[in-house]
Amino acid sequence: MDNQTELTPKASVRPSNGLFIPGYLLPIYALLFIAFGWFAREHWHNSPALDRPAAMLSQAVPSAIAQTAPTPPAVVDPKVVNQPSKDTAVQENTDKEIPPGELASDELPALRYSAHVYASEDEKRSITLNGQRYHEGDSPAANLTIEQIQQDVTIFNFNGEVFTLDALEDWPGGKVDVANPSEK
């Protein structure tokens, strides 16, 4: 028994449990942390850059491009220019978008689907089509109404016919096939 008492050290050393912060500094650090969070939220919540629609932001890019120095035109043989290749002709036909005035009343114009925001609150749900933000009930084109924005799809009403479009899937334009519009 006496041997055991000699094995235990008599020095009292406080074990280190990590970084020691004096008690009077804890409330000061807590207040600084809360203030930082408050001001960061105010900065991002009231940012004027978030209020601008994507169309206004995309208009700034062409003005920057216009300020660059123009490149001199390349010398091209006129015989080659007059003979377009088959690939170029096919590409020109697919890249053309039909203006809304030339569409039949039962055809839907092309829609570029660039953003889909789903929230539990109805008023916070939105989608962005052709650079413009729309909410449920809005009409992005003639005879087209956004009925409902769901988590993975958007339900549209076009001329009284209800159809769905997957989130972030572009609509190429044309007639709406009510059975499967997403497979076009």
Please supply descriptive tags for the structure shown above.
6 helices, three-stranded antiparallel beta sheet, 184 residues, SH3 type barrels, alpha+beta
Describe this entry's structure for a reader.
With 184 residues, the protein is α+β, with helices and mostly antiparallel strands. It has a domain of 75 residues: Roll (SH3 type barrels). Helices cover 31% and strands 18% of the residues. It has 6 helices and 8 strands. The strands form 3 sheets. The chain has a 3-stranded antiparallel sheet, with no helix packed on it. It has a 3-stranded antiparallel sheet with strand order 5-6-7, with no helix packed on it. Strands 1-8 form a two-stranded antiparallel sheet. A hairpin with a 3-residue loop joins strand 5 and strand 6. The longest helix has 20 residues. The protein is elongated.
What is the mean pLDDT?
71
Shape: elongated
Count the DSSP helices: 6
Poorly predicted parts: 86-98, 180-184
CATH topology assignment of the domain at 109-183: SH3 type barrels
Can you describe this structure in just a few lines?
The chain has 184 residues and is of the alpha+beta class. It has a domain at 109-183: SH3 type barrels (Roll).
Topology record:
Blueprint: H1 2-7, H2 26-45, H3 48-51, H4 54-66, H5 78-81, H6 86-95, E1 107-108, E2 113-117, E3 126-129, E4 132-134, E5 144-149, E6 153-158, E7 161-166, E8 174-175
Antiparallel strand pairs: 1-8, 2-3, 3-4, 5-6, 6-7
